[in-house]
Write a structure and sequence with these properties.
This protein is α/β, with parallel strands linked by helices. About 45% of the residues lie in helices and about 10% in strands. The chain has 12 helices and 6 strands. A 6-stranded parallel β-sheet has the order 2-1-5-3-6-4, sandwiched between helices. Helix 2 packs across helix 6, helix 8 runs parallel beside helix 9 and helix 8 runs parallel beside helix 12. The longest helix is centred in the first third of the chain and has 20 residues.
């Protein structure tokens, strides 16, 4: 193999041939390489280009390639030797190669701005928010809450009120799914009931809408939601929905139309649709 091969580079374990020669974990390396190269070829990736070309040197794709060939532990070796592992690693490498190329060509847009471009926390607090409050009534899933905080930051709503048993940051599952957005979203005071939150919002002039699949609910597309007043949308528990006492305090109850056997959507999906529909109506 040529000396400029990325597999025969100078890094400690996954690339250094001297390390590989005396390392029991290198057993079966050639066979693993053959399997992985075969899977990469199926995906349209030239393993030769990866090993010898300069473009992929030091990239995540190359590190993943080398780690499969020379695992760093007995456990990793056992995983690498499993029958379908080469295909899984090849797919991972394929994604990493595409990601690298997109980033190099400045095509990648689904990432957060870097620190130099991102606004500071103090600047964030001075941003003009859309006059929307999301109220979560005893939502049980921390993953759902994290997703909702992420979309709330993207939509720049005023706040997300986490009522009752709804998990709050810094719950690890929230922080994971919020993808760094939680710190930019006002989540209100803890230990406030949904009913009291709704009453407080109404007293401040908000039009409060319950989002629930009741017989009297108005389809979102037909709901007379005005942009003249700030609004709040209440979303309920994944199993039992919005509390009846809370719905009684709402100006209207709205629902999303469904056309299949299921009559409801995941709450985070629902929040996203309702929030952006409101923005579409002219709040932007």
């Amino acid at each position: 193999m040529a000396t400029n091969s990325r597999v025969l580079g100078s890094s400690r374990s996954t690339s250094n041939p001297d390390y590989a020669a005396d390392n029991a974990l290198a057993e079966g390396r050639d066979k693993r390489k053959s399997k992985l190269d075969e899977e990469l070829n199926k995906l349209g990736i030239d393993p030769n280009e990866m090993e010898h070309g300069s473009e992929q040197f030091g990239t995540a794709a190359m590190r993943t390639y080398n780690s499969f060939l020379l695992p760093k532990s007995k456990g990793a070796l056992a995983v690498a030797e499993s029958p379908t592992r080469a295909r899984v690693v090849a797919n991972n490498i394929s994604f990493l190669v595409r990601e690298f190329k997109a980033d190099q060509e400045e095509w990648l847009r689904n990432v957060d701005r870097n620190r130099a471009e991102a606004v500071s926390k103090s600047e964030e607090n001075t941003r003009v928010k859309h006059p929307v409050v999301i109220v979560l009534d005893n939502v049980r899933s921390a993953h759902n809450v994290g997703n909702i905080l992420r979309l709330a930051e993207a939509a720049q709503v005023e706040s997300v009120r986490l009522c009752g048993m709804t998990p709050r940051p810094p719950h690890p599952k929230i922080m994971k799914t919020a993808m760094g957005a939680a710190e930019y979203v006002d989540v209100g005071d803890a230990d406030t009931s949904t009913l009291q939150t709704v009453l407080d919002l109404k007293a401040k002039g908000y039009d409060v809408y319950g989002v629930e699949t009741t017989e009297t609910a108005i389809t979102l597309w037909d709901a007379p939601i005005s942009n003249n007043n700030p609004v709040a949308f209440v979303f309920g528990n994944e199993l039992i929905g919005v509390d009846v006492e809370v719905l009684e305090e709402c100006k209207n109850v709205i629902s999303l139309p469904t056309y299949g056997n299921k009559n409801s959507l995941n709450i985070a999906t629902c929040v996203g649709i309702v929030a952006w529909d409101y923005l579409r109506r002219g709040a932007t």
